[in-house]
């Protein structure tokens, strides 16, 4: 079974600074997807960034980038130039690639990291 | 706004009540999901529907009963719940099940069982 671990329950950062959120996962799969989701206080979860395991290049999305280390099963999120609007819960998630049988399309989430951006 | 709407936003119910949570998406997605979000626990997948057919039921107690009458609507019928069922219930949809596609989440229903 796959598991996702986020070892930092809470973090804080000054605005305009950079912060890195950690995520490790455990799987025997070779092909899968990894995601970072953001859940602001309004509660609606939105996708921040996605990484395909078969791609060696780290995904980037504006101020958000990941450090994907497949061998170490690590998938950290770096937020550059942090803004007050980045304050939210951040969830790391894993998804198996579809195959013939078994669970497909199920996002396995970590417990989340609460990020506070301070002015 | 993600295009997934959940109602009600808040619900307080007694242990003997029967209520239903509703989820609606008009994104043309084929897969819909129910998740339970409890404090200090990872999101727990409860049910998955693909093309209106239930394809996943993660050992959820029978006091939770899902219904997917069409590809745009998903319900979660609740009856004789326990206080430990109090949580945020999130609905999500995706274009298809799996394949690394993004899941779009609703704002959730905050359920309190008294």
- Portion of residues in beta strands of chain A equals over 45%
Spatial extent as radius of gyration of chain B: 13 Å
Mean pLDDT of chain A: 91
Helix content of chain B: under 10%
Largest interface: A-B, 27 and 28 residues
Kindly state the mean pLDDT of chain B as a whole number? 89
Share of residues in helices of chain A: under 10%
Helical run tally of chain A: 0
Number of strands of chain A: 12
Give the radius of gyration of chain A.
Answer: 14 Å
H/E series of chain A, N to C? EEEEEEEEEEEE
SSE sequence of chain B, one letter per element: EEEEEEEEEEE
Using the alpha-carbon principal axes, give the shape of chain A: globular
Number of extended strands of chain B: 11
* Residue windows where pLDDT falls under 50 for at least 5 positions of chain A: none
Annotation keywords:
heterodimer; A: 119 residues; mainly beta; 6-stranded mixed beta sheet; 4-stranded antiparallel beta sheet; 12 strands; 0% helix; 51% strand; globular; B: 114 residues; 7-stranded mixed beta sheet; 56% strand
Helices, strands, pairings?
The complex is a heterodimer of chains A (119) and B (114).
Chain A: E1 3-5, E2 10-14, E3 19-21, E4 24-26, E5 32-39, E6 46-52, E7 60-61, E8 64-69, E9 74-79, E10 88-96, E11 107-109, E12 113-118
Parallel strand pairs in A: 2-12
Antiparallel strand pairs in A: 1-4, 3-9, 5-6, 5-10, 7-8, 8-9, 10-11, 10-12
Chain B: E1 4-7, E2 10-13, E3 18-25, E4 31-37, E5 44-50, E6 53-57, E7 64-70, E8 73-79, E9 87-94, E10 104-105, E11 109-113
């Amino acid at each position: 079974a796959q598991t996702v671990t986020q070892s930092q329950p809470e973090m804080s950062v000054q605005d305009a600074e950079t912060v890195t959120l950690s995520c490790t996962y455990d799987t025997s799969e070779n092909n899968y997807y990894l995601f970072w989701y953001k859940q602001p206080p309004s509660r609606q979860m939105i996708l921040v960034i996605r990484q395909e395991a078969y791609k060696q290049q780290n995904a980037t999305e504006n101020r958000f980038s990941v450090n994907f280390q497949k061998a170490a099963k690590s998938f950290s999120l770096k937020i550059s130039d942090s803004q007050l609007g980045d304050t939210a819960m951040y969830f790391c998630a894993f998804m198996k690639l579809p195959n013939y049988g078994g669970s497909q399309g199920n996002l396995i989430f970590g417990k989340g990291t609460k990020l506070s951006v301070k002015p | 706004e993600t295009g997934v709407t959940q109602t009600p936003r808040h619900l307080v119910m007694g242990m003997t009540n029967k209520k239903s949570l509703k989820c609606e998406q008009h994104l043309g997605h084929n897969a819909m999901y129910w998740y339970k979000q409890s404090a200090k626990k990872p999101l727990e997948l409860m049910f998955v529907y693909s093309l209106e057919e239930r394809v996943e039921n993660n050992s959820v107690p029978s006091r939770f009963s899902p219904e997917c009458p069409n590809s745009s609507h998903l319900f979660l019928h609740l009856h004789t719940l326990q206080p430990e069922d109090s949580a945020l219930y999130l609905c999500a949809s995706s274009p298809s099940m799996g394949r690394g596609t993004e899941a779009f989440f609703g704002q959730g229903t905050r359920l309190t069982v008294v």
